[in-house]
Amino acid sequence: MELKKRILIHDIAKHLDVSIATVSLVLNGRAKEKRISDVLAERVLNYVNEVGYKPNQLAKSLRSGKTHVLGLVVEDIANPFFATVARLIERKALENGYHIIYCSTNRDTAMTKDILTMFEERHVDGYVLALPEGLESEVSALVRSGKPLVMFDRVLSGVPANAVVVDGATGMYEAAQHLLAQGYKSIALITIMHGQTQMITRRQGYAQALREHNLPELVSEIELDQEPAQIVGQMESFFQAHPHCEAVLFTTNYLGLYGLEALNRLGWSVPNRIAVISFDDNALFRLYSPPITVVAQPLEVMAEEIIKVLLTALKGAKPTNGMVLLQLTPKLLIRQSSIRPSESTRANLK
Amino acid sequence: MELKKRILIHDIAKHLDVSIATVSLVLNGRAKEKRISDVLAERVLNYVNEVGYKPNQLAKSLRSGKTHVLGLVVEDIANPFFATVARLIERKALENGYHIIYCSTNRDTAMTKDILTMFEERHVDGYVLALPEGLESEVSALVRSGKPLVMFDRVLSGVPANAVVVDGATGMYEAAQHLLAQGYKSIALITIMHGQTQMITRRQGYAQALREHNLPELVSEIELDQEPAQIVGQMESFFQAHPHCEAVLFTTNYLGLYGLEALNRLGWSVPNRIAVISFDDNALFRLYSPPITVVAQPLEVMAEEIIKVLLTALKGAKPTNGMVLLQLTPKLLIRQSSIRPSESTRANLK
DNA sequence: AAAATATGCTAAAGCCTTTTAGCATATTTG
DNA sequence: CAAATATGCTAAAAGGCTTTAGCATATTTT
Lengths: 350, 350
Known about the structure:
2 copies of one chain form a homodimer.
Chain A: H1 9-16, H2 20-27, H3 38-51, H4 57-64, E1 69-74, H5 80-95, E2 99-104, H6 109-121, E3 126-129, H7 136-145, E4 149-152, E5 162-166, H8 168-181, E6 187-192, H9 197-212, E7 219-222, H10 228-241, E8 247-250, H11 253-266, E9 275-279, H12 283-287, E10 293-296, H13 299-315, E11 325-328, E12 331-333, H14 343-349
Parallel strand pairs in A: 1-2, 1-3, 3-4, 4-5, 5-11, 6-7, 6-8, 8-9, 9-10
Antiparallel strand pairs in A: 10-12
The structure holds a DNA duplex (30 and 30 nucleotides).
């Protein structure tokens, strides 16, 4: 009833009447280096192929210290931004023989600390991290330990680590300028309460644009640790409290979603009653009526660079090679939601 | 410059002047069973806590054969359906001390075969699988090997494995009935070409509803291995070729998306020119104008049941305990996109 | 022709745990 | 009081691989 026993390197060696070491060396491409004759190397390879021997990865890892697993930490794998980046990273990692083990933090610092510990226990070879705040010392320690590591989307302030981020300041600045150029004066920003670096820079872009035009800021900070319905409600209240508001910028895709829902409920039509721009593109924004103007992040490039940095660190032995800090430029995709209607249209709708 | 050496079980034993075995047994909760005195057990636990010793998971895994890692295979982690299920599974797995390693298949059978092999090499403790066709023998072998395994979303025909699926036939039947009840006669179905089981049953539900009303089927099968723009184009052609079509059912969320884009381009307004229902709910459908009627899958329950089945198999020793085949009932969420406009409204728009 | 070097391979240590068999000593039983 | 059983713990094997030091033999150098 038992299936045939798993074949071991020992069996290969025995059958070919060579040593285990020889088989191992050949299998790891160190035959030349270790002066195993070509003919023997080939004999080994052939037999291994023939019987379909696959080394036990656990044993390999235990001995070599390499697991060929990358730890991916995102805020929420169900968020299209992270899901898409994860998908792209996954593909490129796989192409290079690495597997992904992932966890969602849900912005919970304590839980994230556990996740990092678990990843360490599991001896992941490298880290791809989009972390909540409060893990500065942990990540610093990781960096110091020399483990390949890339932060993305956001960084931790004061932690000198490789990072691939998007220039949210410029992105938001351009978005705001686009609104200002059309004569909008009362432009709101809806952002989150946590001080993640990417949110701060996005807000700065908005602030600078308004400052240049001597216009006052109008900002709502949303506490995310509440039910979706409450968040929508909070936004409704905000809009109601600012009936003069003509345009609104959302700093993330999910805020944009909640915002659209809030505007729906209020019956504020877009863009007639209010213009809308969100950070971070996705299918919904593209297909919404009207299509939503967005600051699109270059996801593909992002994933590519993340993996590139990581692979370099994984291969290159140089420990203190200096950090890579890559700032990618987002792209304002102007769609209908931010185009000021003609006066006649507005009048019609009054 | 070097950080302090990682602490080993050996160090613990030495410091406490007990054997390694004792420490191991205590740490694995087998103190009682192996008659380690309570006082010693506590001494061990205290010291371990004090110095923060964490066993090397690789060594544990190698020795015990358990990795506490689950392999998750989905069609595309960037698809909101899979991303959401992944998120829910992840949470519950973590609660039970399991980590997730995942891969997207992209409907590529050959690549998926590799993925399964890799998972096996990595000695995952269990599998959660939404597979493309063509892996019947591989999965059968896995099942026979006794590895805990749950298929979800779809099954492989003829493979007797645990499975958690959604009753797409009933879901689509009800959706079609809803349209028929409103007097729609020419109802199209847009589905994919591949013969995945879940797609087949969804189509059957549609077919049965039409049959009961003696209405002809109107089906378009989309080949997914093309560019998005082409898919949209194909749907446009389909609609143009069937101008009498009054309503359309999409069998997946992404088909629904493409379909909405196609209808947009054609200028066919929903639901005035054509009623729309899609399988599988998500934020876009909820927020779209008009909101799209969907056959919503019970994602939370799904994830819960998947993990429940898996954990039972992981704990329970019984190898041939019989298979679990769970069929969950989806829910028709009627929104505006499938509500037949009054005659006057229609006339207005003519 | 002896010494040095190159060639081709292997023995065995090491990675860090878990787990089994079993050794003393103490207690109970007949 | 000897034999049986219980108690509390440990030595050592096992898990499957990588890697280092080094052993013969063959070839080249002085």
